[in-house]
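S.,

Sequence below, as promised.
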Amino acid sequence: MNKEVYKQIREDYLKKVENGSLTILFSGKAPQSSGDQNHGFEVNRNFYYLTGIDQDNVIVALLKAEQGNKEYLFIEETTELMAKWNGRKLSLKEAKEISGIENVVYLDQFKNYLFGFLNSLRFSESQVKTLLLDLERRNDPNYHSLALDFLEKFSKKYPEIKVANTYNNLIALRMVKKEAEIKKIQEAIDVTKGGIEALMINARSGIYEYQLESFFDQYIRYHGQNKNSFKTIAGSGVNATILHYSKNNTIIGEGELILFDLGAEVDYYIADITRTFPVSGKFSKRQKEVYEAVLNVNKKCIAYLKPGITWQELNQYANNLITEELKGLGLIKEDSQLRKYYWHSIGHSIGLDTHDPSLYSVPLQEGMVVTIEPGIYIEEEKIGVRIEDNVLITKEGPVNLSKDIIKEVKDIEAFMKKNNKYQKAK
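The prediction came back faster than expected:
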């Protein structure tokens, strides 16, 4: 996305916060993985959302004041030694061009600028009354972030400055996608489509799940996407009945269904797609019955989407549909038995994260992109089916961004009959 998009996002953000506030966000650092290595760097998504900068050890400061808003970006200067070891980091000019922030300075000046924001007697910075930080919390006693570490030190040095959490302000903006963001999600879905077709082309029994999975990885790497949205679920047979199965280390049996929950990532925007298909290229009678039941719910839930409905209403609608399908399949007699074969929600928001943070108390809004992913999981029959699409909410009606990824029984069977290497060889 170009800098104009990030400038607009920051403008929208500053409209949400009070005058006299200073927002500080951190890009993050790569955590240590072993004695001499770090994990791969993953930029803080809220920071990236405001700046477009994908680099560690960067800080953005946004000042909202009656005299005028100001924006600052603090980046690490590349020394000659750093360049020899790890390559050059962004220059001041490059960071300005990506983010659209005019005031880009080196990181070693951050403390001086912060002092000026909070202590100047001549400039608007002296009116700062509130420091806003992205204080995301998780139910993990070991969780920490640069923002939480900064808060601890800041509160001791500036006890007179109020500190508030701006996380919800950022999430409220991220929930509703701009046109440029939707295009990135669509790009990720389009690459995912090709990867899923590569799976169908190479599917066969007698190989490990991870061996079949590798064809998806190779496809998206070859087509320029070096990252998956998340760890792929490749569950064959009974493994498909495990919601977050990820070992992917079982030999695929003859005549089994395999469930793939996966996606490609484009500039941190993700696809999250699930498709289930027979490795033989042909559904058995029972597999088809279960599959068609899930597909029916998938289609009806997509059609149900519109601005104004709540997640609670959507989930209840899906629960009612799946309950009736389970009765039709002869699996349950009472509504209370639903959770024996279906135990998750119907979907979630997507965007810069697979489960994009959302304010779930807020009804669906135009511009949101959500998943619809009903499933039926029959452990005793070794059949698990989930079908997941990514859908844009509009006032004119839902737009299925993944509609070109085949999911009809006849289309799957026809595609595999024509293209599967092992079916054609028979």
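The radius of gyration is 25 Å.

Coffee later?
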